[in-house]
């Protein structure tokens, strides 16, 4: 699917035939058009659609190809897994081509309220991905705190499995953010080839700083989550032990009066004659006394 945009009044608006082309999950016909007409390398085009591809930059004779990482939109079908995607940006002298595998929002946010040139659009696309990572990190932190409270109160393995999913997501996020960091450093090193204006160079420096801060935050969350996993697993195990202990105590408490009743139910001579009208109440009284003694010991020993 193809969408075209143009820069009008310092804003990006959808316009037929605009210099900014966005290809969403391009079919075979669109791929051939990009390869044959735009001279985009077929391997680089495939990399833009591969979620496992690392961020990188390549300089071609008539354009610059950039692959950067960004988070995928969260879907309830993924459970608590947060996944990453690749996005390809191909910067020509008079046009900008964006290729991505999913219909992810590109030109949203205050970053695009003031745009003047295509290189600036490219930089702001990368900055937008950093902002998107930060949003997801806040959500991951909120979910992990909620799961911690549930683990302290429950014994279900699904909460631990959800935490494992969050930990795995953070590993992918840290790797993707670090990959974007290398990409930004390469862009800065080759800034002369882009002919950036002073404002664009300053914006690139700000983007690098924001990405490094995002990476550090992701690493902190990942380290905290990883270091606490064993403790949370121990909490679940301890909760199970406490439940088993309580059930055993209840079982013993029931067995004590049951033992007394069973003794008086044996078919042998007993001190109390069956014909005695007080036999039943005597047995029940002994059972009640035994249960009371057991409850007293439970309370005194703090079982």
Task: Outline the structure in words.
This protein has 303 residues and is an alpha+beta fold. The protein folds into 2 domains: 2-239, Beta Polymerase, domain 2, CATH 3.30.460.20; 240-301, Up-down Bundle (Methane Monooxygenase Hydroxylase, Chain G, domain 1). Helices cover 59% and strands 14% of the residues. It is built from 7 helices and 7 strands, in the order βββααββββααααα. A 7-stranded mixed beta sheet has the order 2-1-3-7-6-5-4, with helices on both faces. β1 and β2 form a beta hairpin. The chain is rod-shaped. 25% of the residues are buried.
Rounded mean pLDDT score: 82
Strand content: 5-15%
**CATH structural fold name of the largest domain:** Beta Polymerase, domain 2
Number of helices: 7
Low-confidence stretches: none
Compressed to H and E, one letter per element, the order equals: EEEHHEEEEHHHHH
Structural class: alpha+beta
- What is the assigned CATH homologous superfamily of the largest domain? CorA soluble domain-like
- In spatial order, strands of the major sheet run 2-1-3-7-6-5-4
Major sheet: 7 strands, mixed
CATH class of the largest domain: Alpha Beta
């Amino acid at each position: 699917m193809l969408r075209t945009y143009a820069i009008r009044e310092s804003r990006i608006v959808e316009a037929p035939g605009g210099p900014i082309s966005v290809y969403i999950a391009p079919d075979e016909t669109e791929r051939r058009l990009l390869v044959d007409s735009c001279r985009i390398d077929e391997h680089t085009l495939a990399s833009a659609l591969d979620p496992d591809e690392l961020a990188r930059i390549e300089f071609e004779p008539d354009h610059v190809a950039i692959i950067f990482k960004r988070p995928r939109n969260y879907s309830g079908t993924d459970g608590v897994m947060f996944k990453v995607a690749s996005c390809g940006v191909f910067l020509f002298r008079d046009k900008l081509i964006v290729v991505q595998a999913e219909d992810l929002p590109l030109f949203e946010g205050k970053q695009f309220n003031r745009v003047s040139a295509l290189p600036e659009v490219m930089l702001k696309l990368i900055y937008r991905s950093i902002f998107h990572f930060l949003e997801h990190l806040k959500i991951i932190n909120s979910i992990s705190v909620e799961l911690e409270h549930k683990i302290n109160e429950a014994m279900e393995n699904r909460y631990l499995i959800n935490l494992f999913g969050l930990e795995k997501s953070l590993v992918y996020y840290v790797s993707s953010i670090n990959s974007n960091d290398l990409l930004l450093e390469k862009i800065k090193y080759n800034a002369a080839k882009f002919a950036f204006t002073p404002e664009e160079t300053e914006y690139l420096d700000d983007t690098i700083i924001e990405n490094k801060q995002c990476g550090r935050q992701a690493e902190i969350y990942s380290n905290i989550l990883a270091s606490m996993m064993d403790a949370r697993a121990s909490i679940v195990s301890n909760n199970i032990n406490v439940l088993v202990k309580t059930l055993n105590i209840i079982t013993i408490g029931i067995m004590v009066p049951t033992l007394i009743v069973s003794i008086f139910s044996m078919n042998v001579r007993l001190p109390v004659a069956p014909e005695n009208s007080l036999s039943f109440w005597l047995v029940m009284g002994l059972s009640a006394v035994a249960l009371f003694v057991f409850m007293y010991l439970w309370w005194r020993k703090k079982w």
